[in-house]
TrEMBL record:
Its EC number(s): 5.3.2.1, 5.3.3.12
Record flagged with keyword Repressor: no
Superkingdom of source: Eukaryota
Protein name listed in UniProt: L-dopachrome isomerase
Organism for this UniProt entry: Caenorhabditis latens
SUPFAM superfamilies listed in its UniProt record: Tautomerase/MIF
Keywords, in A-Z order: Cytokine, Isomerase, Secreted
PANTHER family assigned to the protein according to its UniProt record, in alphabetical order: D-DOPACHROME DECARBOXYLASE (PTHR11954), MACROPHAGE MIGRATION INHIBITORY FACTOR (PTHR11954:SF6)
Length: 117
């Protein structure tokens, strides 16, 4: 049930956005050991974002998951894979991007009419 929501202040073509959605779904699913049928990736482009006092390319992401996130080892492993993708697809350097990791309980999210608990 991982949910990755990405917000950036850059423009991305529909084709590149689709490529990035697929890449993130694949990479995050593998990193977390979650089936792709539960992956949810959301990309918000063209957002009004200031980072370090400028509006140069920047962004942030929130990754929510039942397990697989929360420890420094887990979060650093994910960061090491995602930051290069954000640079490659969005042109955003790693020092202008944040990722927030949220480990949620199985009872805190529902899918197909019921929670995962």
């Amino acid at each position: 049930m991982p949910i990755l929501s990405v917000s950036v202040n850059v423009t991305l073509s529909a084709e590149k956005k689709t490529e990035l959605l697929k890449e993130l779904s694949n990479v995050v699913g593998k990193l977390l050991g979650k089936p792709e049928k539960y992956m949810c990736i959301h990309i918000n482009t063209d957002q009004s974002i200031s980072f370090a006092g400028t509006t140069q390319p920047a962004g942030f992401a929130v990754l929510k998951s039942i397990g697989g996130v929360g420890t420094s080892k887990q979060n650093n492993a994910i960061s090491n894979k995602l930051f290069p993708l954000f640079k490659e697809y969005l042109g955003i350097p790693s020092d202008r991007f944040y990722i927030e990791f949220v480990n949620i309980g199985a009872a805190d999210i529902a899918f197909d009419g019921q929670t995962f608990a």
